[in-house]
Amino acid sequence: MSAAAVARDTGARLAAADAAGLNATLYWSQELLDAEARRVEALPADSSLHGMPIALKDNIVTTDAPTTCASRILAGYVSPYEATAVTRLRGAGAMVAAKANMDEFAMGSSTEHSAFGRVVHPLDPSRVPGGSSGGSAALVAAGVVPAALGSETGGSVRQPASFCGVVGVKPSYGRVSRFGLVAFGSSLDCISVFGRTVDDAARVLAAMSGHDPLDRTTLDRPSMRRPEPRRDLRGLRIGLPREYFPADLHPGVAAGMERARRATRELGAELVDVSLPHSAFAVPTYYIVAPAEAAANLARYDGVRYGPRRIGAAGGIQALYQATRGEGFGPEVQRRILIGTYVLSAGYYDAYYRKAQRVRKLIADDFRRAFTGGVDLLLTPTTPTPAFRAGEKTGDPVAMYLADVFVCAISLAGLPALSLPVGRSEGLPVGAQLIGPFFEDEAMLAAAAALERALGADAEVR
Amino acid sequence: MSIGRDDVLHVARLAELAVRDEDLPRLVDQLNRIVDYVAQLDRLPAEAAADPQAGESDPDDPFLPGPAQVTLRDDVPGPVPLARPPAEFAPEFAEGFFLVPRHGAMEDL
Amino acid sequence: MAWETVIGLEVHVQLRTRTKMFCGCRTTFGDPPNTHVCPTCLGLPGALPLPNAEAVRLAARGALALGCTVHEISVFARKNYFYPDLPKGYQISQFDQPLATRGRVAFESPERGRIEAGITRLHLEEDAGKLLHDRFPGKTAVDLNRAGTPLAEIVSEPDIRSPAEARAYLTTLRQVLVYAGVSDCSMEQGSLRVDANISIRPPGETALGTKTEVKNLNSFANVERALEAERTRQIGLAETGGRIAQVTLLFDAGAGEVRELRSKEESHDYRYFPDPDLPPLVLAPGWIAEQQAALPELPEARRARLEADYGIPAYDALVLTGEMDLANYFESVVAAGVEAKMAANWVMGDVMSSFNETGGFPVGAPRLAALVTLVRDGVVSHQAARRIYAELAQHPDQDPRAAADRLGLVQVRDQGALSAWVDEVLTAHPGEVARYRSGEAKLMGFFVGQVMKRSQGKADPKGVQPVLHERLSRR
Ligand SMILES: [Mg+2]
Ligand SMILES: [Zn+2]
To answer: Is C306 inside a domain boundary?
Structure first.
């Protein structure tokens, strides 16, 4: 199929998704798609992503569409420069198809915290697609695009991938440039990928990975290659961290994990029991570190240089700041800014931020010990439950935070991880998480491809 | 530790966020809920939080997810170009300047 | 009651780089507003800091020149506050792990002789933009060309004991940094800025009094004046039972007064934390040693060497080393064959006047050497040479000898010509001739002056005297 035909086809699917009320996109246009097709047709036909339409989470900047982070504070903002990851994907022949809805500034686990309305789960409109990259996940799950970029700070791709029944891959920190990814928690943020298959996600990841002189936190190591999928898992030791299999795990998720365990063993892997004791502290640690960084990262939205401005009634610069920010940020973003400011403020730094940094190291040390102790990969559930109902957790911020209980620690440790569909529980997808050692993204993806083939995603597990 | 009304107002002032009076009680509740939740880090034994394996490393050395040290850029002009000039994205702009309302205290500096 | 004054100074100097601290924008002065800006220094969503190697090198060099320990590991931190000149809502600075600590500045105190003030720390940071309050009615205009310019902040210990000492400290600090090539240190262009902390205490007291901070100090002279004013204010308060509050003050140079800056209702809480966009700055010990070895001769060492090597007076060496460029110029003139004291006199005279006016040297050192040689060889008089210097300053391409010829300033030593001028003078002043002959020997000077005048300065004074003697001794 020609790029032009793919562009038309993708436009039709996007229109259908809109008509179905998914609310998964914040911007797309047939003109943009057609322009992308014309651009791609001038590229060599053997470029690695030739003609592949890709949706971008709306916190990744492009010069030809608005980037709003699903926030009123950036309504209508069009970036005057483009993210490195996007430049690389475009160079590899991908077409930018749409900007996807998300939790405002990537803060949330259900994509209900968008200033432009919640994203609807493609399989059950009463449920959430997960978040914060819920729009990207829904677009892939609904078959609108084969792949989409999301971003992870504490599980924001793996968790919605699990809820929506698609593959979600978070690379190692420092693998993909953050230049042009709107910052949330800079020491955690990773541009990440949704794909229909492990291979789709791996191809996209390989095309955009590698050292970027514009991001001093990327590692200057050889770029990732599209991994050679394994046929089996012989010779691999896969650890099952006991802290990730609590007794009260949702029965559907438990059944999905049983299925994944069995498939793994049948593929020849050796399963071993391991312990990651400090992972129990990952969510509270995360909810100190991420808001602290976010409070500083979101200070630039002050109504002075870009974005809509509100003039406070009192006049003057301070009224401008407070009105612009007070009205421009939604409630969850404001909560996180306030918490982040609090934990860094005089008298509280040691009790919160410094302590969280120490615990973060303990969490990372647990993983390092497991991997140096002879385990090649770790296998856990991605989420404690399948997709929950819209409105179920919006009243209690902490309940929402606990939706990330199995994904947070990996983000704190900077490790590569992915979520793979392992079946369905009462019609809703269940995902398993594979975690690799730092910068072993390729080996993790190769193993995931073998497991993917053995599982088949649509089986009802309970 | 618990967060009071004044703490919230103080922090909101530092973060330059206008908080409406009617939102304040709910905000106080929610922030307390979050702070109480993250305070479970206090349950970690002090020595564990201070030093995982004696002599391994200084507990205050940061955990770095990325490179261990920063690489530096040569002092050669060449900024990332702007596809559009500031005049096109600024909320208020005249004669090459971003404009903001005048503020008394600022005139002094 | 006598009071002891305690002063500490915070100095920000702009590092001499081509580009900003964290982006590739040029550091320029005086260009149209917001023309040197990019995603990073505008604080656009998604942009990241890219630290400048040269800024790090210059800051390390400055620190070493001040005798600081440069640390192998230092950490960039975010200093959080809102201001319209601060694009990101935080300044990238260094906080609990600065680039360098514990140095010193040795300088001449007007009251205490030679003393040292400790340097607490030197750290790297980025500058803010510029605000204009008088250009648009009711508005503040923001220019971000300067935002992100690399700075070294140099914090002194509270070791300074008077406003005059503060000025002397700053003069020496500036010299050291200019010698080390770290900064232009121009207060006019804002490449050196000073904030001062001052408190008073009874003599013998070791605890520090409540300090105030004085800002808006735009010259070293104003630093001294502002601190005098603030010291007087504090002593006045203390002696009338008033309380000194910890406030920030602005110096109004016109009125010669300090004014309290509208005090913010809350004290600053900058919420410093390590910048997660920037891994630690790690400097190899070998690299630090290289920077140390590459330091040029600093003012103190140079002063001593000029005295010893050239035999010039201590005062001359002090003046000449006051500006590195002057000292360089002086040495070039000597190297071109001019006797050292003669060279020093010239450099401290006409050369320094034009340097102070223009900041440069309109007459190159080889040309000045050639000119001074003309004086030594009696080709032109000292007076004539100064006229030639002024001429060369206007038209630097000229050869001094050619200029002397063109201006008709070459001294005349021809006996015939000298005799003619002498005869004319003696004929014109018969009375003075008679008085001289009757014993008033001091009139010789008068006759020489008259001959010089009549010759329009061209007569060689050394040749004139023998002719005068010979004529006046004739009866
Ligand atoms: Mg500073
Ligand atoms: Zn710039």
So the answer is: yes
Please report the beta strands in A40-82, taking only residues with DSSP state E, as ranges in sequence order.
53-57
* CB proximity A188 to B under 8 Å: yes
Best A334, A343, A405 residue to mutate vs chain B (most B CBs within 10 Å): A334
Q: Is residue C142 domain-shared with residue C175, that is, in the same domain?
A: yes
Length of chain C: 475
Query: In this structure, is residue C286 part of a structural domain?
Result: yes
Distance from Cα C38 to the centre of ligand 2, integer Å: 4
Q: How many residues are recorded in chain B?
A: 109
Q: How far apart are CA B86 and CA A38, in angstroms?
A: 29
- Domain assignment of residue B41, given as a range: 5-48
CATH code assigned at C432 = 1.10.10.410
Same domain, C455 and C340: no
Answer yes or no: do C38 and C176 share one domain: yes
Residue B90 included in any domain: no
Number of domains in chain B: 1
Dig out the tokens for C9 from the structure.
């100074």
C47 interaction partners in chain B (CB closer than 8 Å): 80
Q: How many angstroms does the Cα of residue C345 sit away from the middle of ligand 1?
A: 42
As a whole number of angstroms, the distance between CA B53 and CA B43 comes to 18
* Model confidence pTM above 0.80: yes
Could you say which of C406, C439, C460 is where a domain stops?
C406
Amino acid in the structure at residue C229: A
Residue C349 lies in a domain: yes
With an 8 Å Cβ cutoff, are B70 and C132 in contact? no
Touching C (3+ Cβ pairs <8 A), the chains are A, B
* Residue B30 covered by a domain: yes
Residues of chain A neighbouring B63 (CB-CB closer than 8 A): 357, 360-361, 364
Domain assignment present for residue B98? The answer is: no
The number of angstroms, rounded, from the C-alpha of A129 to the middle of its chain's C-alpha atoms is 12
CA distances, C296 to each of A340, C86, C116, C197 (Å): 47, 35, 21, 31
Instruction: State whether C277 and C318 are in the same domain.
Output: no
Residue A177 annotated in active site:
no
How much is the ipTM here?
Answer: 0.97
pLDDT in tens, A317-347: 999 999 999 999 999 999 999 999 999 998 8
Best of C48, C50, C130 to disrupt the A interface (most A CBs within 10 Å) is C48
Q: Name the residue type at position A366.
A: D
What range does the domain containing C463 cover? 415-472
Closest CA relative to residue A203, chosen from A222, A189, A224: A224
Domains of chain A: 1-462 (3.90.1300.10)
Same domain, C142 and C22: yes
- Does residue A114 have an active-site annotation? no
Locate C475 and state its tokens: 């009866």
Of C373, C406, C439, the one marking the end of a domain is: C406
* A355-409 per-position pLDDT tens digit: 999 999 999 999 999 999 999 999 999 999 999 999 999 999 899 999 999 999 9
Interatomic CA distance for residues A9 and A334, integer angstroms: 40
Asked whether the beta carbons of C212 and C229 are under 8 A apart, the reply is no
Q: Residue C212 C-alpha to ligand 1 middle, in angstroms?
A: 17
**What is the distance between the alpha carbons of residues C258 and C249, in angstroms, rounded to a whole number?**
6
Same domain, C381 and C455: no
Q: For residue C233, is it within any domain?
A: no
- Catalytic one of A110, A114, A133, A156: A156
Q: Confirm whether A79 is a catalytic residue.
A: no
Shared-domain flag, residues C272 and C366: no
Q: How close is the Cα of B104 to the center of ligand 2, in Å?
A: 29
Per-residue pLDDT of chain A (462 residues; tens, 9 = 90+): 899 999 999 999 999 999 999 999 999 999 999 999 999 999 999 999 999 999 999 999 999 999 999 999 999 999 999 999 999 999 999 999 999 999 999 999 999 999 999 999 999 999 999 999 999 999 999 999 999 999 999 999 999 999 999 999 999 999 999 999 999 999 999 999 999 999 999 999 999 999 999 999 999 988 888 888 889 999 999 999 999 999 999 999 999 999 999 999 999 999 999 999 999 999 999 999 999 999 999 999 999 999 999 987 778 899 999 999 999 999 999 999 999 999 999 889 999 999 999 999 999 999 999 999 999 999 999 999 999 999 999 999 899 999 999 999 999 999 999 999 999 999 999 999 999 999 999 999 999 999 999 997 577 877
- Ion ligand 2: residues, Cβ under 5 Å: B 79; C 23, 25, 38, 40-41
Q: Tell me, yes or no, whether B27 lies in a domain.
A: yes
Cα separation, A32 vs C164, in Å, equals 68
